[in-house]
Fold:
Amino acid sequence: MRILINATILIICGIICNLSYADQVNEYYKSGKRYMDDGRFHKALNELNKAIASINTHTSPDLISEIHYNIGSVHFHLEEFEKAISEYNKAIEIKSDSPIFYNALGIVYSETKQYKKALDTYHKVIKYSPKTAEPYFNIGLVQYNQGNFSSAIDAFRQAIGVDKKWTDAYIGLGDIYLKQGKLSKSEQEYNNALQVKSDSIGALIGLGKVYLRQDNTDKAKPIFQQVIKIQKDYTDAHFQIAQLYIKNGEKDKAEKTMEYFKVLRDTDPLLVKAQKWVKIHPDDPKGYNNLGILLLTRRCYEKAILNYKKAITLSPNLASAHYNLGLAYHKQEKRELAINAYLLAIKNDSELAIAHNNLAVCYSELNTNLNKALSHSLIATKKIPSNPNYWDTLATIYKQLGSIQEAQQAREKQISLLRQSQK
Structure:
């Protein structure tokens, strides 16, 4: 009897332990999902791998497949595509009728230009979920990218047949017809997209191009301006407006617009890299600071400010982020806010000459605290005496203070440095 009781206790303990392990798997899984939702992919991966390591006989196959699927999604976000493919396939091995798993796998194949595998995978999505528009649309994209326009048109039409509000399918059709020079059809498809989503940049930019091809600049211009209103730094819109000005013979406007377009074009790849960096490294303050610098260069001041503030939240003593925040405010002519930011930059790095100079400029522009302006301007010229801009600031402040001789000396120094730089 004692032996049976002991055996029963052991069985019960085993069951309790296994159930405890099952709970542990679920907790790690939920924790990983929370990190994913927050964009903290490395931490998510760590938790999801713990979930895999804790799997036991009581863990349901559905949960195991979901864990592998989510690990695959983390790897996809981290652009570790081969690992993503491996994990999605593990999920599919366990649950072979999941359209979600197949669709995710197809997207990775598309991203890595494994188009045949992508098409095969999307057809499996359709097999298990024929009333879903996305796989048809994804097939259309693959065919479009391969230049198979007829097949792409069929796929986009099928997507719309399933879901008449699938905006991107209309845009896909519009893009194909535009490439084929079928401007009336292209215009119709872009307008169909805009009926579903009136602020669709893809549809608007396409429609503007149609009007430009038709030499209808009066219709094209407000369309491109609407795109810029939605997204100020949308590169292609500025290029199209420059072309519009050229067509209209507005040379000065064309040159000015092309100048800004070139800034956007040259920073586009850098912006993509910076955005990916903060996505993968959400706790890196320098990453947000660098992203802010690019956004400021692209004249996206509010977005730049948000990123500088994020950098400062993560690293309150990061002087460069305070300085850049001040510069963004300064460009918006919010001088009091700029002054506060420049002061914090100097507090964290007193050697930052440019912060001293720009602080002096703010005081000078406000025509207030000119003695403070002079003090900071002198510090800037002392720290970097070879910068002609600093001497320009100093000359201006001396003049405001009525110190004419000192102003003249500073101006002569500035001119001398400018001449040296031109040799």
About this structure: The radius of gyration is 30 Å. The CA atoms of residues 65 and 169 lie 31 Å apart.
